[in-house]
C-alpha cells in the first residue's frame, strides 16, 4: 500500500505551511499555491507528509491510499 498527497484547490488558501513542512514533495508557485508531486510517498517520508496534512489550517491537503 502506498500514499499520495492531494490538494483541494477550492479549499486551499495559499498559506504555504505544507511546503514548509514537506519541502521534499511540495513547492509553491508564484502565488503561494502548492505544487504537489504526484509520485507515491515512500514509507520514510510518510511522517513528514502526515505532519503537513495535519498542519493545513483549512484541511485542503489530504493523504490518500493508492
Ligand atoms: S497548508 Fe493548506 S492552505 Fe496552505 S498552501 Fe498548503 S494546502 Fe494550501
Short description:
Helices cover 23% and strands 24% of the residues.
Shape annotation: globular
DSSP strand content: 15-25%
CATH fold descriptor: Alpha-Beta Plaits
Secondary structure tally: strands: 4
Question: Could you tell me the radius of gyration in angstroms?
Answer: 11 Å
Bound ligands: iron/sulfur cluster
Terminal-residue CA separation: 7 Å
How do the SSEs run, as a string of H and E?
Answer: EHEEHE
List the helices and strands and how they pair.
Blueprint: E1 3-7, H1 17-21, E2 26-28, E3 34-36, H2 46-55, E4 61-65
Antiparallel strand pairs: 1-4, 2-3
What does this protein structure show overall?
- The chain starts with a strand and ends with a strand.
- The longest helix has 10 residues, at 46-55.
- β2 (26-28) and β3 (34-36) form a beta hairpin.
- With 66 residues, it is α+β, with helices and mostly antiparallel strands.
- It has one domain (3-65): Alpha-Beta Plaits (2-Layer Sandwich).
- The mean pLDDT is 96.
- It has helices at residues 17-21, 46-55; strands spanning 3-7, 26-28, 34-36, 61-65.
- It is 23% helix and 24% strand.
- The protein has a two-stranded antiparallel sheet.
- The protein contains two helices and four strands; from the N terminus they run βαββαβ.
Amino acid at each position: 500500500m502506498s500514499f499520495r498527497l492531494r490538494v483541494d484547490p477550492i479549499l486551499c488558501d495559499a498559506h504555504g505551511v505544507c511546503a514548509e513542512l514537506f519541502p521534499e514533495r511540495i513547492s509553491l508557485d508564484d502565488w503561494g499555491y502548492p505544487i504537489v508531486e504526484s509520485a507515491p510517498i515512500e514509507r520514510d517520508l510518510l511522517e513528514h507528509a502526515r505532519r503537513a496534512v495535519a498542519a493545513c489550517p483549512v484541511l485542503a491537503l489530504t493523504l490518500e491510499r493508492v
